[in-house]
Every structure is written in C-alpha cells, then in structure tokens.
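FW: tagging you since you asked about this chain on Friday. Here's the raw sequence from the shared folder, copied in full. Didn't touch anything.
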Amino acid sequence: MIRSMTAYASLSRAGDSGQLTWEVKSVNQRYHEASLRLPEDFRVLEPEIRARLKARFARGKFDVTLRYHADAAAAAAAPVLNRDLAAALLERHRELAGLAGSSADPDLVRLLAWPGLLIEQRPDFESEQHNALTLLDDTLDALLEAREREGTAIAEMLEPRLAGILEQAELVRRHLPAVRNALETRFRERLEGLGADIEPGRMEQEIALQLGKLDVDEELDRLEAHVAEVRRVLTLDEPVGRRLDFLMQELNREANTLGSKSVATETTGVSVELKVLIEQMREQVQNVE
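HL: got it, structure written out here
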C-alpha cells in the first residue's frame, strides 16, 4: 500500500487540568522536515515529538501544533504566600525600623510585589506532558490512516493510466507491419529512382539498415516492463515514492525515443498520448511517500 504525503489530522482530549488539542498537517517534501508550535510548558517535548514523527513517516513536511486551554478552576487558582520569605521580610522591616527609631507599620501592599512572595499555583505539567504525548500518538495514527487513504486514491488514479500505456503500446504493435511495409516500399522507390546499378543484395542490406534505425520493438518492450514494475512497486509495504519517480522518468525516456523514431502519424500520436499519461502520473507520484 502506497501512502500520500498530503494529509491532515486533529484530535482533542481533556487532560488533568485543561484541554489538549493536536493538529498535524503534512505535505510533499523530498526529505523529512517538521515545524513545531508548542505552548511554553510543553517545549521540553520537542525532541520526543520529532522522534515519534520519524518513527512513523519516512518523508514529508509536517506542521505540528499543540494547543492547551487550562480549565477555569486551574486558571483561577489563587497564588500561595511564601511564608518563609514573608516572615523574613517582616523581620528585616522590624530590624530596619529599630535602627531608624521608627514604629511605622510595613506597607503590605508593596511587600506583596516582592519577587517570589506569591507563588503561582500551576498544574502538574509532567502529567499533562504525558497526556499530550499519548494524544499525539493517536493523532499520528490518524494522520497515517489519512495518508494511506490518499495513497489508495493515488493508486486508483495510476492504474487506468498504466493500462492506457499498454493500450498505446499494443496500438503501435498492430500498426508496425503496415508501417514497415510502407517504409520498405518507399526506400525501394527512392533507391530505384537514383538510376544507379545497385546489386539486389546491397539494396536489401540498405533497406534492412534503415528499417533497423526505426525499429521500436525494444522501446515497446521496455514500456511494458516499466508498467509491470510500477504495478509491483505499488504493492510494496514500504516508502516507494522515489522509486516511482524514477520509473516515471524511465517511462518518459521510452516515450521520447518512440517519438524520435516515429515516421508515421499513428506512432507520432501514440508518443504524444504516452507523454500525457506519464505526466498525469508523475504529478501524482510527487505526493507519494
């Protein structure tokens, strides 16, 4: 089963203290590349996220986004007083007041602004990070399924075009005898029109040489072999995008050679049709992992 590199998946789930949402998009890319957007408290997960992407996917450009919305109760939790620091500050205030000979009360509002005096209550992010990775695994599984569905659609698109290539090759084979007879007749008329005394054996040799230059049997055989190889590769359970891309180049090479040897309108038309079919496949193969 081939897999497309173009897919999308998104999953949401409630964590211990908030809502987690992963969104993963992938598009075609020659290599493996990932762009991550994570909340500050989840940035520590970046190496693990990249490792999990590489474990599942061989190629593609990935945009990975995690959104975290804390529960209202967690977001509204009152900060906790750092009692040790508060006692120390009040003690220092009394010492300072004694030195100054003053009995002024401390300005508690200003003391509250002292760095570290109020400790913000935060969720247990170790637990939430674990929840996030579990949800990521499920999201990547969904992305993999989406890429496989897209891959199936690509394979279904390729098959009729592969069949079309074989039909065009068979069309050329049917026309070849008539084309060869017409060429042989034309060569004989030209050689006879020269008015020179040419030995029959020499004439046959020259005709055979010219017909050999225009023979396309090898190109047709290779076209059919390449089609068989594409069909075989489509059944492999591994990344095959680069291999398919190479086969598209080989198919196009044979179509070009067939066109260069073409001396009849039938074979010329076949060469053009082959290039159209191959280009349609090549555009889709660019998306295969």
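FW: The mean pLDDT is 85.
HL: agreed, and The beta strands are 7-14, 18-27, 32-37, 60-70, 80-81, 118-119.
FW: great, closing this out.
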